Request: fold
Amino acid sequence: MALLDLVGAPYRIVSIDINTPDHPTAELLAVNPLGQIPTIAMPGGRIVTESAAMMIAIAEDYPESGMAPATNAPERPAFLGWMVYLAANVYPAVRRYFFSGEIAESETARDEVRRMAMKELQRDWRVMEAAVDPAPYLLGRAPTALDLYTAMLSRWAVDQDWFRESCPKLAAARDRIEDDPKVATVWRENFLNFE
Ligand SMILES: N[C@@H](CCC(=O)N[C@@H](CS)C(=O)NCC(=O)O)C(=O)O
Reply:
C-alpha cells in the first residue's frame, strides 16, 4: 500500500480479516492457494503473491519512481539479494513467531517455537545490520522498495527498543523512509508501535 502510494499507482483495497473462522475464504484461495495476504491483482490481470515479488513487480512497473534499481544498475544485485533475504529469513521467522500454532500444538512447544523464532529474527537483523552502510537510505541517496520492506518487517514481532539499540544503522535508514508523509500515513493506520 505504501509502495503504491509512493509510485503513484491507483489501487483499490480489499480488506481481509485473517482472524475469522471462515479464513481463508474461497475468494482468497482462488487468487492465493496458500490463503495468505498480501495478494495483488495488477494491471492486465496479473496476480502476484509473495510480498517481495509484488514489491519488485510494482516498482518495476514504475521505473521513473526509482523504487527498484534498473537491471544494469550497480545497486541491483544488493537490492535483489536483500529483498530475497528478508523474504526467505525474516518473514518466515515473523510467521513462526505469530503463527506458532501451525507447527506446534502444546502451549509449551508453542512457547519454545516463539522463543526460537525470536532468536532467529534477532540474528537475521544483526546480520543485515553488520552488512549495510546506509547513505542515508539502504542502497544510497534515494529510497527503494528495500527501505520500505525493511521498515515494514522490522515493525513486526521484535521489541522496538531492542531494534533501535542493536541495529542503529537499520533504524536510522528506517527513520528516513518513515519520514515520508505517504509512508507515515500508512504506518499510522497499521502499526501500533509507530510514533
Ligand atoms: N511469504 C508470504 C507470507 C505472507 C503472510 O504470512 N501473511 C500473513 C499475514 S502477515 C497471512 O496471510 N496469514 C494468514 C494465514 O497464513 O492463514 C509473503 O511474503 O507475502
Summary: The beta strands are 39-42, 46-49. The chain has two domains: 2-65, 81-190.
